[in-house]
Amino acid sequence: MNVDEAARVPVVIVGAGPVGVTAALLLARRGVRSVVLERHQDVYPLPRAVATDDEIRRILQAAGVGAEFTAIARPADGLRLLDPRHRVMAEFRRSRHGVHGYPQSSMFDQPELERLLREALAERPECELRGGVEVTGVGPDTSGPVRVTYRDDHGEHELRADAVLGCDGANSLTREAIGGVWEDLRFEERWTVVDVRTTADVRCWEGVDQVCDPARPATFMRVGEDRYRWEFRLGEGRETVRELVAPWLPPSYDGDFEVVRESQYTFRARVADRWRSGRVFLLGDAAHLTPPFVGQGLCSGIRDAYNLTWKLARVLRQGAEEGLLETYESERKPHARHVIRLAVAMGWAMTGGQDGAAALRRRALAAACRIPGVTELAGRDLSRPLTAGPLVRRGLRRGLAGTYCPQPWVSVDGRRTRLDEVLGDSFTVLTATEPGPSLTAIAHGLGVRAVPVTGLGDDGTLAAWLRAGDADAVLLRPDRVVMDVVPSGGRDFTSTAAWASLLHTTRSPIAARHPVEKSLLRSTAR
């Protein structure tokens, strides 16, 4: 057994899928070194996840691959529910300009995403990817560092880390190591997934179709210029792929038709009973499994990475209290469970059973979706506000606390860029007017400046957002969630002492900032 003390790093990440590599990139931006251990030498070549939303695209921007992902993504128009004859029952439209600054729904090829993430990882000196290894154990986190053992062609090795992130999938060794077990949310079905490349004039729209047919429920979407995906629940029949997809193809089509992948999966709905033991954490499929019907499987894992990494970096690099890490599971688990239940509900809508009431339920669903505003509300529900807690302070009014700050394009020193590129990776006090002494002091304690929206040169989005939330100022977390609010006419945040203690905010301002942020701070200081 080789104990490589010289290579000891703050964080070991088990699994180099999109969640693990995104976590490594987000940590690197905050100066935290990591070693990523992965059993495969290269990217898994076949497509799996194909859909994402604007919140995830904002996170990929934070990870440093926003522009690269834009080049491979295809904006989508949303989701439709079709009856067995492919007639539209309901339509959930998604905007091409979401609150996070990107299309609300996009299609992509997972191997392409994984390749650009690994390319970005290779450019970061804080990260090291070790492929072709098998992790054999994650030791208990007691008073010292966490022990991670792994095997490669050269024998057995042991690493020591201040934290371990288990991004190792549904059969997670890390989950087993912390004694985590699944809570079954009572959904399990066998489906076949078919990815096809063809130049045929496929009957489709620029979004996702869910066929609500109890005899043969199906999902269909256009992924790329000539790439399509179908998913069918397995039944008693033995139809060929061409027979299954025939309703979408021109009659008697005999042109090019390449089946890129045909695989059978068991769709499950599960949540791990624990996501953390000491400094060992579960992320992605290691922590939760969802049916794919609302396209949130990979999205949920990347949300996990974004929520955890800034907190872990603050503990490891800035001496924040250990209790900050407790907010990871308490914030992410309710949202993950909510998204899973939405996916299960969509699965119910697609199948609906085959009893006498099934047709009535589907008609009731179609009627409900014709009510003005219902489909818009359903579409927004994927990013519902975080619940109140140590990092989300709410008073009697719900207001903006727990919601995301929008990300418009802004202009600083004549340069047009996205808001998050200006604010960098730190906390921000965003104000409707020039900040007074109290807000300036709070911002100074966090190592940031209070930034008036009037100096950002945007199109009025931020000012309108603050007015709509009846707020004079907001405290934004590094993940751009509103942590606290100064209500209109107020003078201070509602509960400064509680979060100031948790975040250990008695330090001098942070020296390292994003270049555009430095420019903004110079301009606001004038």
Explain this structure to me?
The chain has about 525 residues and is an alpha/beta fold. The protein is about 30% helix and about 25% strand. Helix 1 packs parallel to helix 4 (about 110-120). Residues about 505-525 have low confidence and may be disordered.
Number of helices: 15
Oligomer: single chain
Shape estimate: globular
The residue fraction in helices comes out at: 25-40%
Radius of gyration: 24 Å
Low-confidence stretches: 506-526
Largest beta sheet, briefly?
9 strands, mixed
| Beta-strand content bin | 25-35%
Average pLDDT rating: 86
Distance between the termini: 59 Å
SS class:
alpha/beta
Number of E-type strands: 26
What key phrases describe this protein's structure?
single chain; 526 residues; alpha/beta; eight-stranded mixed sheet; 15 helices; 27% strand
Describe the protein's topology.
Layout: E1 2-3, E2 9-14, H1 18-29, E3 34-38, E4 51-53, H2 54-62, H3 66-72, E5 74-75, E6 78-82, E7 88-93, E8 105-107, H4 110-122, E9 127-131, E10 134-138, E11 146-152, E12 155-166, H5 173-177, E13 182-197, E14 208-211, E15 218-222, E16 227-233, H6 241-245, E17 258-272, E18 276-277, E19 280-282, E20 288-289, H7 297-318, H8 327-351, H9 358-369, H10 374-380, E21 409-412, E22 415-418, H11 419-423, E23 428-431, H12 437-446, E24 450-452, H13 461-468, E25 471-476, E26 482-487, H14 496-503, H15 515-525
Parallel strand pairs: 1-12, 2-3, 2-12, 3-9, 6-14, 12-19, 23-24
Antiparallel strand pairs: 4-8, 5-8, 6-7, 10-11, 11-12, 13-16, 13-17, 14-15, 15-16, 17-20, 18-19, 21-22, 23-25, 25-26
